[in-house]
Amino acid sequence: MTERIYLLPLWLRIWHWINALLIITLGITGTSIHFASPGALLVEFSLAVRIHNFAGIALAILYAGFVVANAISGNWWQYVPKPPGILQRCWKQTQFYCWGVFKGEQEPFPVTKEVNFNALQAITYWFIMYAVLPVTVLTGLIFLYPQWAPDKLFGVDGLLPVAVLHYLSAGVIILFAIAHIYLGTMGKTVTSLFKTMITGWHEH
Ligand code: HEM
């Protein structure tokens, strides 16, 4: 029997899809800027810079909105990894993603209205949204306003560590997005989690 739960409020779904669009835009233009060449890899350099700056500021504002709305709505609690037995729950979930799902096994920790994320999702979403993304946004803003950067850091020009952190944290987000889209196919059917993220209704 199929059970339906109304899980995701409209603001969260709107945030998610604008966020995804901005991250894809930033990924494409950021790659074009980093690997700029006269033959233009993806987007012409000066156009890529203008789009990247605009999308970066939009992402910074959207991120601030996410943190505030997540706090006010109480949705932040989903993101907190809950310790008792968390390693065992992560291992069970990994086994499900690696082979259980291909053998038609049941999802080990089905979604409820109270607990939306399994242990792996809580750890990953917490890490990306509250540890990695703020670093990318902050270092991006410092790049845009280099007068904020320290003159020297660790004996080198202050902008160099900022550049390295921006590049590495952005790389982590792109790797996350690829894995995230793949794991998004592991719902009741291949498309059901994507539908949940559009309609707010979860089915299992
Ligand atoms: C085209 C790109 C993307 C697609 C197709 C996509 C798809 C999905 C799907 C299907 C879900 C629901 C499944 C679940 O609960 O895990 C979801 C949730 C989520 N996604 Fe994405 N996603 C994309 C990009 C991103 C990016 C770039 C980020 C962050 C940098 C992100 C962060 C999240 C978060 C935090 C949730 C949980 C939201 C909540 O319930 O509080 N997504 N996404």
UniProtKB/TrEMBL annotation:
Coiled-coil parts of chain: none
Record membrane topology: Multi-pass membrane protein
Top-level lineage group: Bacteria
UniProt keyword list: Cell membrane, Electron transport, Heme, Iron, Membrane, Metal-binding, Transmembrane, Transmembrane helix, Transport
Domain Cytochrome b561 bacterial/Ni-hydrogenase stretches: 9-200
SUPFAM superfamilies noted in UniProt: Transmembrane di-heme cytochromes (SSF81342)
Residue ranges of the TM segments: 20-42, 54-77, 123-146, 158-183
Primary subcellular site in the record, as a coarse category: membrane
InterPro entries: Cyt_b561_bac/Ni-Hgenase (IPR011577), Di-haem_cyt_TM (IPR016174), Hydrogenase_cytochrome (IPR051542), Ni-dep_Hydgase_cyt-B (IPR000516)
Presence of keyword Heme: yes
Compartments in which it is found: Cell membrane
Protein name: Cytochrome b/b6 domain-containing protein
Organism field: Uliginosibacterium sediminicola
Lineage: Bacteria, Pseudomonadati, Pseudomonadota, Betaproteobacteria, Rhodocyclales
